[in-house]
Design goal:
about 500 residues; FAD/NAD(P)-binding domain; Alpha-Beta Plaits; Glutaredoxin; six-stranded mixed β-sheet; five-stranded antiparallel β-sheet; flavoprotein; RIFMO-like; FAD binding domain-containing protein
Length: about 500
Amino acid sequence: MPDIIIVGAGPTGLWLALELRSAGLEVTVIEKNINRDIRSRAAAMAAGSLETFATRGIAQRFIDAGTPIHSIHYGSSESRLHMSRESLGTKHPHSLMIPQAVTEQLLVELCQEKGVEFFFGHLASGLVQDSNTVAVETETGDGTKSTFTASWLVGCDGTKSAIRKLANFEFPGTDGNISGWLADVLATDPPSQPLSVNNEYGSFLMQPLGYQKYYRLTGVSIGTMNLPPSAIPTLDNVKSFATEALGTDFGIHSPLWLSRFSNTTRLATNFRSGRVFIAGDAAHQFFPAGGQGITTGIQDAANLAWKLVAVAQRRLTGENADELLNTYSTERKLALQAIIKSTLAQTALYASSNSVQSALADVVYELIAHPDLNKLLVRRITGFGDPFPTKEGGQDPLVGARVTHLEVGGGFELLHSAMAVDTFILLVRDLNLEPLLSDCISPWAAYIKCLGPNDGIVSFGQQWEGVDAALVRPDARVVWVCRDSSPREHIHLSIRKLLEELCKEI
């Protein structure tokens, strides 16, 4: 019997499978489709996902298969959000144009290298769980039924998730009232750089798809934005959209894919029901503004994976295990609520159809050019600015933040190589604290990697000013901070209590 069943072999399910298998768990992935669709709803990988992959040493595979981009739009603004070492603080401070189909193929290959078991062509049709196991019934195209049983199950099967329905997750939200279009095409006279414009005709974006010589064109056209998603545009429609917005159709031809999508917005009330979890598009749906769909799914998987590993390996049991697993829903719902607000705001900018809305859009676009706001928004859009639950009584502002703007040994490699789905990182910058902290964490030595002053820890971000030590979770988020003003007599108790709650019962 596998430890975990994952339903859905999209980016979220595949990344979760790879993380769990890397910790030695037995993982089965069930996917309803037999063949992978070469069409890609998502055409980009945000810098936040790339950094997650870098912490596992696999980012270069994706970089080699994609096209780096160093700026992104916000609501189709001509004022771009700029990614840099200063703003993101990562080894790869850029996003990638890479089709979702390519991302999925690379992840499948990585999973197969690790020994993840796949069952393609199996549609989930029934689900039963008890206090110890969960079983999912599947059916193939020829009517053959099978039952798969595991300790835990995660539904990563998209916005029409069978698992979400079978496990009775509530999925409230609003139906779409605005639609956008997309086209993957070749172009005889493409622009020299990515384009994003917004004018009286609507919004228009164009950039390399990252697949052969295709370009991704997408936007919201005022004249057609009330059409349903079923009203798929023709190539001539897309040429008209481009000509209206920019005076040229760039000689587009040979469409690989034409589609229409809406701003339907939904968020599950909870991401866990007993031994069943949902993640990615199965848990949340929103307008694809800024390419945040894959980003949120990858971060769902990163958040859940290390917690499932700790529980599946029985390092945490009983109430401690339940409380840790419940934080997945609490943390990710808060992050998704903020992301949904951002996508709703961008939708309003895309569809500015009267003088009042256009005036508001102009003001927002002007503000985006301000360096501080530009940095704030680019971190949020790329997956580095998620809000994090605040404990009663408050907490250090660094808690919950992803580790950025920090090098060890003259680069990022030493820090990244120390990270794993079952490993915490203790960063110690104060030489006088090293003996005390080494003694504090000794019962958890098998699950904590220490990097100290002699390893050459160098920060280049304001968030690290005054930080003497920090504990980092396996998903690269800070969970404990000791500053130069922290009472030294409380250190031993605070870090040991935290490790008993998150890492292993002693």
